[in-house]
Fold this protein.
Amino acid sequence: MIKYFVRTTNERKLDKTYAQIEFTKLVDLEHKPVDSFISQLKQISEYDSVLLEDDLILCKDFKNKIEEAISKYPNYVINFFYMPMNYTTTHVANTVFRFNQCTYYPKGISKLIADEMEKLYKTDRFGYAIIEDEAIQKLNLVFVIYRPCLIQHIGKFSLLKGKERYLRQTIYFDDYLDELGITYDEAYKYKDDLLKLLEERNKSL
């Protein structure tokens, strides 16, 4: 059974789409993103776990769609929001690991990553995503990049990460494809329409 966890500082109201899943909050009250992330990876390690951030919109039928995806790659870490503006296929990769908005960790793997992160963690100068990537490389882990994106990031500012301000949204959000009546395989041909849809949805937030 897959368990769902949401990383949060408890300052943000979760979007209504989180109601699709039963989840446990992992609260960072001290605003220590690296320390809390390492601790949270250890906490979720006894389960097959999906780790979500608190500033997302989950696609329609999220639970069924993500669990179907996981069933195809149950023994891999799966990154469901990797390089969100890039059109790519679902595939196994050993590239730089980035973007932690929605990640699946098979039982036991997240503790291995957390233990390696502790060895590498020397300073707050680097964010936890960079340290996690170094840990994954040290452990020679590959991971799955999944498309289409089953979640959308809300806005540009993250309370979890602090000062970061860059585009971490996607035009390849599953709900957008449904709205336009296209498949993901066709999505690259509709980039302008998807960009327009993203802009419209941001105005309504």
About this structure: Residues 191-204 form the longest helix (14 residues).
